[in-house]
Every structure is written in structure tokens, then in C-alpha cells.
């Protein structure tokens, strides 16, 4: 049989066949042409090998994409151990370049691109603030110790007056390649560690690293309306990159301390406010100072119960990076007096003597239910 027969024809499937169809076709043909079922038949043995070769290629999405585009030429150069130009004109150095052309540079990386020194690491700083700070915003200075670019060498890592030289191992590419069977494998250069350059005469101050540890003071601006876990990014204030590479970023993570009066959900502030039982019975007003330094007056309707919530629009937290304010919500807790004067006790006794049960319908309803339940049990 011809060695150039199309893989899809060998497996007797369409070029659009999915993975399941390919697998089913392969199993059927492999069983049909297996040498054990056709002892001594050279044609069956050759077709069996060809079927295996075709399925091995088409079951791999990357190999299949290369085959669909370039046919068997996509594999001849790599399979030959790296010799020859392939494609008749040396358009691709190896199978890695073929995949890179198909899938883009993100697949394996071309040897022509220099990796260069790595960007500096990002750093984290945890800051605790009060709820009042979160409401009004503030600026605060922080001290951080971080790797910065070395002054004497300007971050290059080379002694002043000298410079880094191109790495002879990788020719400045930062990566080296080695043939491993069918594939060409690419690794970080062991001599320059991917930088593409080596420093023969390192800087005395930073010992060739291009950076030194230093404590510096930064001003952090906390905007109004921040919440627990809000993250503030200071671009370029992280760790300096090696040998002049860009610095990373510094991230400030905010933690809001518990307030003695207010709690918070988003832009809504909550507070539990105690009121006297006479205010609850007769109605009245209560004034609540907010974080905005304003006394907010709430009207208490007569007969209000514990747990009832009242809302004041626009008296809550500011909207972060926006306009407007949230709400202030108070939850009322009716307080029973524990210290009564003789006069107050006398007045309360007189009130109790006039009670009919209609004054507190919830209490009366509860005991009526208990009475009905008891009557049912005793009938």
C-alpha cells in the first residue's frame, strides 16, 4: 500500500469526524487487520501499522491541527531528528514552530523571543481602619521594607562602567532547546536563568541582583465608602524587578474595626436604639447622631413594639467611587424600667387597675390560645 495515503482515508472517516467516531473506526479496522487474525499476510501487517500511525496522529488535537494544515510534511522534519530544513525551504525549524504558527506564540514560545529579567513581585499590606475613617476617607503614611532598584548600578546589576553581556549558552534568547524523540523541548537557559544576559563584573552594592532592600514611606489615600476587604493598588510600589525589570505593585487590604454603635451592610448603617416603655406607648421622637456628624430625628409612632425598624434615607455610608449615600436604619428596643420612684409605682398600679386586656392585644391573644388549648385537652 502507498505510504502517502491520507490518514482520514485510512481510517475511513470524514475530515470532520469527532473523537468518538475516530476511536470507533480505529477499533473496527485494528481488529480487522490485526496480525493475529491475518498471520503471514504482509499487506494486513502494513495496513495495521498505518492505521495505528493515523489514529495516533488524529487523536491528538495539536497533531491533528498540524496534519490538517500541512499533511505528513508537518512531522517529517521532527521525526528525522532535526536534520534538514523541512518543507523544502526551511520555513519551520521544528514541530514546535509548526504548533506556534497554528496556535500562536502562547503555545510554546519561539526561540527568537528573549525572555528577559522577570517583573518584580507584587506585595501585600494589611491596614486596619475605623468605621469613621471608612465613612470620611483619609490619607495615611505607611512604612514598608521592599526591594528597590540599586542606586550605584541603576538596577542593571553590573558594576558602574560595565554592562551585561549576551549569554553564550542561549545566544541571548533566554531558552535552550533539545530534541526528545518526536518533539523539540524548550527549557529556561541554565546559564542566564532566562535573562538572556550574564554579568561578568557584578555591582558591589547589590551583588549583581540589580536591587537592594530599603525601607520607604508611602502615602495611602483611603476613599470614602470603603468596606472590609477593599483593595487599594499602588502601581509600581511593589518589589523592584531584577536587573532593571519593571517593579511589581503594592496592594493595600483594608480591615474595618467593629464600631461600638453601628454595624454595616453595604452602604446601610444599622443601630439598636433603646426607648422607654412610655415613649413606645405614647409615641415621641428620638435623635440619633450619625457618622456624618448630624443628629437624625426619628418619629416614634404610639404603640410601637420592640424589634420595629425605622429608616432614614441618605444618612448611611457613602457610595464608594460614586455619588449618593446609603440609609441609616435603627431597630427599637423597648426598655422596661427597673428603678421606680414611689410616685411612679403608684401611677403604674393605678394604670394596672384600669387594664382590660385590650391595651395589649398580642398578650391577650396568646393567653386566649393557651386557654383554648387547655379546654380542648380537658374535654
From TrEMBL:
CR-type domain residues: 137-215
GO biological process, one term: protein refolding
Cofactor note: Binds 2 Zn(2+) ions per monomer.
Residues of the J domain: 6-71
Cofactor: Zn(2+)
PROSITE patterns to which the protein is assigned, alphabetical: DNAJ_1, DNAJ_2, ZF_CR
Residues where Zn(2+) 1 binds: 150, 153, 203, 206
Transmembrane segments: none
Zinc finger (CR-type): 137-215
Keywords per UniProt: Chaperone, Cytoplasm, DNA replication, Metal-binding, Repeat, Stress response, Zinc, Zinc-finger
Main location: cytoplasm
Highest taxon in the source lineage: Bacteria
Subcellular location: Cytoplasm
Residues annotated for Zn(2+) 2 binding in this entry: 167, 170, 189, 192
GO MF annotations in UniProt: ATP binding; heat shock protein binding; unfolded protein binding; zinc ion binding
Swiss-Prot/TrEMBL CXXCXGXG motif repeat ranges: 150-157, 167-174, 189-196, 203-210
Entry keyword Zinc-finger: yes
Protein family (similarity comment): Belongs to the DnaJ family.
Function comment: Participates actively in the response to hyperosmotic and heat shock by preventing the aggregation of stress-denatured proteins and by disaggregating proteins, also in an autonomous, DnaK-independent fashion. Unfolded proteins bind initially to DnaJ; upon interaction with the DnaJ-bound protein, DnaK hydrolyzes its bound ATP, resulting in the formation of a stable complex. GrpE releases ADP from DnaK; ATP binding to DnaK triggers the release of the substrate protein, thus completing the reaction cycle.
Protein name listed in UniProt: Chaperone protein DnaJ
Amino acid at each position: 500500500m502507498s505510504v502517502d495515503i491520507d490518514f482520514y482515508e485510512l481510517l475511513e472517516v470524514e475530515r470532520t469526524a469527532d473523537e468518538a467516531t475516530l476511536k470507533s473506526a480505529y477499533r473496527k479496522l485494528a481488529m480487522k487487520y490485526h496480525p493475529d487474525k491475518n498471520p503471514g499476510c504482509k499487506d494486513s501487517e502494513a495496513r495495521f501499522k498505518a492505521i495505528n500511525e493515523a489514529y495516533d496522529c488524529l487523536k491528538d488535537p495539536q497533531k491533528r491541527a498540524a496534519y490538517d494544515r500541512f499533511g505528513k510534511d508537518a512531522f517529517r522534519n521532527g521525526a528525522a531528528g532535526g536534520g534538514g530544513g523541512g518543507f523544502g525551504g526551511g520555513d519551520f525549524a521544528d514541530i514546535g514552530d509548526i504548533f506556534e504558527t497554528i496556535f500562536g506564540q502562547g503555545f510554546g514560545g519561539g526561540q527568537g523571543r528573549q525572555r528577559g529579567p522577570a517583573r518584580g513581585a507584587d506585595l501585600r499590606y494589611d491596614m486596619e481602619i475605623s468605621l469613621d475613617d471608612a465613612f470620611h476617607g483619609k490619607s495615611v503614611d505607611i512604612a514598608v521594607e521592599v526591594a528597590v532598584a540599586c542606586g550605584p548600578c541603576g538596577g542593571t546589576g553590573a558594576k558602574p562602567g560595565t554592562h551585561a553581556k549576551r549569554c553564550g549558552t542561549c545566544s541571548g534568547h533566554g531558552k535552550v532547546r533539545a530534541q526528545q524523540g518526536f518533539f523539540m523541548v524548550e527549557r529556561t537557559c541554565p546559564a542566564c536563568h532566562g535573562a538572556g544576559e550574564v554579568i561578568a563584573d557584578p555591582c558591589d552594592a547589590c551583588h549583581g541582583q540589580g536591587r537592594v532592600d530599603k525601607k520607604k514611606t508611602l502615602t495611602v489615600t483611603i476613599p470614602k465608602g470603603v468596606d472590609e476587604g477593599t483593595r487599594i493598588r499602588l502601581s509600581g510600589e511593589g518589589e523592584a524587578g531584577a536587573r532593571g525589570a519593571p517593579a511589581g505593585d503594592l496592594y493595600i487590604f483594608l480591615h474595618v474595626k467593629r464600631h461600638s454603635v453601628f454595624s454595616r451592610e453595604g452602604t446601610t448603617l444599622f443601630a439598636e436604639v433603646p426607648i422607654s416603655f412610655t415613649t413606645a406607648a405614647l409615641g415621641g421622637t428620638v435623635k440619633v447622631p450619625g457618622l456624618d456628624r448630624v443628629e437624625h430625628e426619628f418619629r416614634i409612632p404610639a404603640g410601637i413594639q420592640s424589634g420595629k425598624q425605622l429608616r432614614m434615607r441618605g444618612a448611611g455610608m457613602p457610595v464608594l467611587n460614586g455619588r449618593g449615600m446609603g440609609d441609616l436604619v435603627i431597630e427599637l428596643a423597648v426598655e422596661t424600667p427597673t428603678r421606680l420612684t414611689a410616685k411612679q409605682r403608684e401611677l403604674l398600679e393605678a394604670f394596672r387597675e384600669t387594664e382590660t386586656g385590650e391595651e395589649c392585644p398580642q398578650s391577650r391573644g396568646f393567653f386566649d390560645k393557651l386557654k383554648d388549648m387547655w379546654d380542648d385537652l380537658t374535654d
